[in-house]
Design a protein that fits this description.
single chain, mainly beta, 14-stranded antiparallel β-barrel, PorP/SprF_Bacteroidetes, signal
Length: about 325
């Protein structure tokens, strides 16, 4: 009976995810803002590439796993930015692949910059029911699903010295996939809802030399048909080499994270989410690993003035 109860809960949970959210939730977007705002493309000026792996709700059957790669750079003397993001998100028998390109046009206003960004691409929604453990060993009783969905988004990003604010709608088109009717159709229905994101942060020096900095920030996330959520982040950066912090995601998790400068070009970051919802009875939390590489391409960037890793300008 307990196994049946857990399986029922899992099915209801997976159904809720598939109906509500297709784009993966990242914890460490504060190290890669391109994940939530296309206007951030080229903000590092130099070429920046980020690889990410997220293992969510460890020990929970069918829990989400996310693989992500992104890259972006400034071009034309920092007048525009271009970027590319590729994600693979796995939830149970479902697999979502996202491929999106970004373009940002920058308006420089003295010490401040306003970027206007667009992104376009597609999502491949698929399901492999052979991964399900069924007593009758007949996964064919469920119809598979493979759907191609194009979409586009837009955003604004304003930064001045150690302050920034961004507003984005990463996915503008609301799309729906349901090839089957009845109860089975309800389980396989996928609805892509529109997101609205407001993000802001600041670096505040804690000493005269600016060797120690406090970095408070927040992300206000709204998705149609879902409750409003907010992330509140705080970090301390020491000598632009090491950063450690904590965050809170409303009704979801408490988070600890750190970032370490390995070389002049490479940073490594790790975060752990302590689940605060009812899922904490079944899960050991979530791990997220990030590796970032940045480098000037002399033939493209000439001699640009690049912002430091721990700054918004």
């Amino acid at each position: 009976m307990m196994r049946l109860f857990y399986l029922s809960c899992l099915l209801l949970f997976v159904t809720g995810v598939c109906r509500a959210q297709q784009y993966p939730v990242f914890t460490q977007y504060f190290f890669n803002e391109l994940a939530i705002n296309p206007a951030y493309a080229g903000a590092h000026v130099q070429f920046s590439a980020t690889a990410l792996y997220r293992n969510q709700w460890v020990n929970f059957p069918g829990a989400p796993r996310t693989f992500s790669f992104s890259g972006h750079t400034a071009l034309m003397k920092n007048k525009i930015g271009v970027g590319l993001m590729v994600n693979r998100d796995e939830i149970g028998s479902y697999g979502n692949n996202h491929v999106y390109g970004s373009y940002a046009y920058k308006i420089h206003m003295g010490q401040a910059t306003l970027s206007m960004g667009l992104q376009a691409g597609f999502t491949l929604l698929g399901a492999d029911y052979s991964k399900l453990s069924l007593q009758d060993d007949d996964p064919g009783s469920f119809l598979s699903m493979n759907t191609f969905k194009p979409n586009f988004g837009a955003g604004l990003f304003f930064n001045k010295k150690n302050f920034f604010v961004g507003l984005s709608v990463p996915f503008i088109i609301n799309s729906k996939s349901n090839k089957n009717g009845g109860f089975e159709g309800a389980l396989t229905e996928v609805i892509e809802r529109r997101y609205y994101m407001l993000r802001s942060g600041v670096y505040i020096p804690l000493d005269r030399a600016g060797k120690v900095k406090w970095n408070p920030s927040f992300l206000l996330r709204s998705q149609e048909g879902q409750p409003l959520s907010i992330d509140i982040n705080n970090a301390i950066t020491i000598y632009d080499i090491f950063s450690i912090g904590a965050a809170w995601r409303s009704s979801d998790a408490f988070i600890g994270f750190l970032d370490l400068k390995l070389t002049e070009k490479i940073h490594f970051a790790y975060s752990y989410d302590w689940t605060s919802s009812a899922l904490n009875k079944f899960s050991n939390g979530s791990h997220e690993f990030v590796l970032n590489f940045r480098s000037i391409i002399r033939g493209v960037h000439k001699n640009p003035e690049c912002p430091s890793y721990y700054s918004y300008r």
